[in-house]
Structure formats: structure tokens, C-alpha cells
Amino acid sequence: KPRHPPYPPSPKTPWPIIGNALHVPRLRPWLTYRTWGKENDNKIFHLEALGQHIIVLNDIDDAIELMEKRSSLYSDRPHMPLLSLMGMDINAGLLPYGDVWRQHRKVYQQGFRKEIVGSYHPIINEKCTKFLQRMMAQPEGLKEHSEFYTASIILSIVYGHEFDSSDDPILVTTKRAIELSSPEFVSGSLLINSFPVLLNIPKWLPGGGFHDVAAESRKALHDMVEMPYEVVMSRMQSGDNKPSLLQDLLEKQRAKGTYDISVLKNVAGIAFAAGVETTETTLESLFLALAMYPEVQKKARAEILRVIGTTRLPAFEDRPALPYIEALCREVHRWRPAVPAGVPHATTHDDIYQGYFIPKGSLIFFNTWGMTQNQDIYPEPEVFKPERFLDADGSLNDDDRHVVFGFGRRLCPGRHLAIDVIWLTAARIIAAFELSNPRDPVTGQSIDLDVHQYTGDLFSHPPRYVCTIKPTGVAALLRSDVI
Ligand code: HEM
Q: What is the ipTM of this complex?
């Protein structure tokens, strides 16, 4: 007689010993998870790879039930010893559920809560204008401009750091650290994380090469955190103050001793890693959607012209009067979520759900893609249609859940910032430019816009594309100061 209820159904018969290790998809797992869910009519299913239990959720109600209503059991993260060795235990998003994570989380929540993000609007405004000016000067560099734009927002908010070129030392150090600390960089990372004993392989033995890679990553992450911290400290000491989140937190620390300095440094450093690629990818999908759906773009521009006219660019104050733009932004997150397979949670205790056994230490994948492509909620889910988020009278409906930012105690703390950046960028780009004709930069052919062209394992990226970018009359404002 089994000692516990059955696991949720498995989409593939496991092999002896290795279980489903060969079935777990590496590339674009969100597509496979959704297909398995549909084929087997299972919203929730179970895989087991090298002894690791994996539960995949394709339905928003299950995700809310487990990760929000039972959040005290479902808020851990997978334990990945290799990542600690690589120095990634400075990343709140990877920390185990417990006191150290709580300290980091508290600082994120203070630094990026909705009201505080309002105080960052002048920075977002200024960077957005510069972004549009760059686009006007060099329309074919859309991707590079978007990367530079999102990086400049985060570094300005967090460190008060301003820069004009991609050669900026803080920018270069940060990007290098993020690249080197990616687990994809280490061959055999899955095995090492599954069998931590392998960490004891000496570096001179075959298979021990990860020690050098890990040491390089640790050093790069250390520089990423320390270099801008030193800049902020020396500015504070010389009285040359430039407001920033880190400075503000350090002043509070001095006055009240509330925080641990290493936590403040980590929060500041990781905001870039967590916030830049995700926001930038979403912007790329936004531009792609505009180029692919000219009739949506036209409607959005008509709303802006009706409400604002042509004498200035949209600003945050206009937001309540622009429901179509708001719906369009919600639709971008639904149509091409930047983190489509979510970030796995882990369980801290055994649990039983709908009669199924979910053991302690299971990885819980909330498959955002399965949720945003659910045709019962979003008919014709592959079509980009902002009207899904509008009532018949054109006002916004109450579907503002934004599952793309996750669930429960691990919900993305940077979501208010990301949502605001995307909103302003959408409103202004639609006002100032007409985007069309997306095509492959090498062949010049119209690009295949199918979602299978998106790549990635954690973040999903659209294929590289160029499009025709024509300034509207409003773009002339970008040459003047009337913005
Ligand atoms: C479109 C942009 C963004 C998307 C799609 C996104 C998405 C996510 C997702 C899916 C998670 C995991 C949630 C969960 O486990 O339930 C997450 C966590 C996190 N995000 Fe974001 N994010 C974005 C922007 C940002 C920004 C701008 C910041 C920084 C200010 C940020 C900081 C974080 C941090 C620190 C975590 C870890 C939270 C924890 O484990 O407690 N994110 N994000």
C-alpha cells in the first residue's frame, strides 16, 4: 500500500533511475509544458528527474491556491549549490525562504513600492526622451537603444549613476558579471546541482573546470556590487550628493542602523540583473506588436491625438485618460510574457492538493505561458488584441492581475517600476513614431513572427528584427525643449 496519495499525473512515462530527466525541456520549456497540459487535459502535472520532483501549473487558479493561499509552504526556491559557489547568493530571487531573504525582500519592497516609483517618474521621463531621440537619430539600432535605455533607468535610480556611452565602466562591469554568473556558462550544472557531492571534485580532475568558472563569476559579481557602492560612498563623503536609492538607504542605515550594509549593496546590484533584461525584452515585444498590428497602432495613436493633441508628448499624468494604451500594455505582457515559464518556487513541507501528493522540496513551475494563452479566458490567444482588457464602453476591465510577475510572497517587487516604464515608452513611441514592416536584418525577409521563433530558457527573446520607423509630426518635439 503506498505511503502517500499519488503524485499529479505525469505527461511522460519516467525511465528507471533517471526518471523524466531526458524529458524535461531545456529550450522554450513553456511551450512544451502548455502542449503537455493540453494533450493530457491536465492543468497540473508531475515530473521527476534524478530524484527531484517537479510540479507544473498551467492554470492561474491552481497557482493562486498554492502559491498565495498556501504561501507559507510554497515560497522557497530550488537549492542550487553551484549558484552559491558562483557568488549568486547575493540574489534575493534565488535565496532560500528565510531571514536573509526576508531582509533583502524588505529593502526591495521599500525601494520599489508603488508610491516610491512615482518619485522616479522624472528619471523615467528624461531617459525615455533620450531613448526616443536616439531612435530618431539611428532607427536601425532599436534593440541597442532599448538595452541602453533600461540600463540607464535602473543605474540612475539605484546609484544616481549617469552615463552617455556603452563603454561606461559601471555598465560594462555589471553586464560582464551577469553574463559570467549565468549557470548556462557551466557545463554539467544540472548534474552538480542535483548531486552537490560533485562540488568536491578537485579542479585538476576532468570535470573540475567549474571551479575556475565559479571563481571568475564570484569575482565579477563582487566588482559589480562594490564598484558603484564605492562611487556612492565617496560622493556622500565629499558632500557631492546625487539622490539615489542606495544613498537614501545608507543614510537611513547611518541614522538608525536598520539595515545590514551587505544587504543594501546586494539589493542595489541585483536590481539591474533582475530588472533590465526583463523590461527590455518586454519593450522589444511591444515594438514588434506595434509593427505587426498597424490597426492597433492606429487606434492607440488616435486615442493619444484625441486626448493630448500634437503639442506635447504623453506624460504620466495622462494615464487615466488613455485606457486603450493601458490595455495595449496589459496585452503585451499577456501576448509575450518576458518570463514565460515563471521562476520556480519550492515547497518547504509535504502537501496534498486535489488528492495529489506534493512532497517537500518539490520545484513548482507556474507556467505563465499556459495561463496567458488559455483560450477559455483569452479566445484566439495568439492574436494581439488590447480590446480583451476593455469593456464594451471602452473603459478598462478588471483583468489587471499581471501573472507575468509571479505569485505570493515571491511576487516581483520591481513590477510597479516595470509597468510604469513600459507604459510611458508605449505612449510616447506611439505618439512620435510609426512602426511597420518587421523583417530579418540579414535577409530583409519579413520575419516569421511565430512564437516558436522566440528563444530562451528563462527569459524569452523575440528574434532579432528591424522595422521601418517613420517620425510623426509629434516627433519634431524631440528636437525642441517642449517635452
Ligand atoms: C517586465 C519586467 C519584469 C518581469 C516580467 C519580471 C518578472 C519576475 C518574475 C516572474 C519573478 C518571480 C516571481 C515569483 O517567483 O513568483 C520576479 C522576481 C523578482 N524580480 Fe522581477 N520582473 C520584471 C522587472 C523587475 C524589475 C524592474 C526589478 C528591479 C527593480 C525586478 C526585481 C525582481 C526581484 C528582486 C525578484 C525576486 C523576488 C523574490 O524572490 O523574492 N524585476 N520578477
A: 0.99
C-alpha cell at 469: 520607423
Continuous segment of H or E residues that includes residue 176: helix 169-180
Rounded-to-integer distance, Cα 429 and Cα 290, Å: 10
Residues 354-382, mean pLDDT to the nearest whole number: 95
Q: Tell which residue, 103, 95, 96, has the closest CA to residue 258.
A: 103
Is residue 418 within 8 A of residue 330, CB to CB? The reply is no
CB of 174 within 6 A of ligand 1: the answer is no
Distance 247 CA to ligand 1 centre (A): 22
From the list 424, 397, 398, 415, the residue with the least C-alpha distance to 319 is 424
CB 82 within 8 A of CB 88: no
- CB of 11 within 6 A of ligand 1: the answer is no
Q: Kindly report the CATH class assigned to 1-81+344-368.
A: alpha beta
Any idea which residue has 516609483 for its cell?
Answer: 117
**What distance in Å separates the CA atoms of residue 130 and residue 425, rounded to the nearest whole number?**
11
Strand pairing report for 363-366 and 466-471: unpaired
Among protein residues, the one with the nearest Cα to ligand 1's atom 11 is 412
In this structure, are residues 221 and 177 in contact, taking their beta carbons and an 8 Å threshold? yes
For the Cβ of 111 lying below 6 angstroms from any atom of ligand 1, the answer is no
**Cβ neighbours of residue 481 under 8 Å, at least 6 residues apart?**
none
Q: From the CB of 342, is ligand 1 less than 6 Å away?
A: yes
The CA distance from 240 to 159, in Å, is: 13
CA angle 447, 452, 457 (to 5 degrees): 120
Mind listing the pLDDT tens digit for each residue in 178-235?
988 876 554 455 555 555 655 556 665 556 667 788 888 899 999 999 999 999 999 9
Q: What pTM does this model have?
A: 0.94
Residue 471 has pLDDT above 60, yes or no: yes
Task: Using DSSP bridges, classify how beta strands 363-366 and 52-57 pair: parallel, antiparallel or unpaired.
Answer: parallel
Does ligand 1 have an atom closer than 6 angstroms to the CB of 158? Answer: no
Which atom of ligand 1 lies nearest, measured to the CA of 271? 29
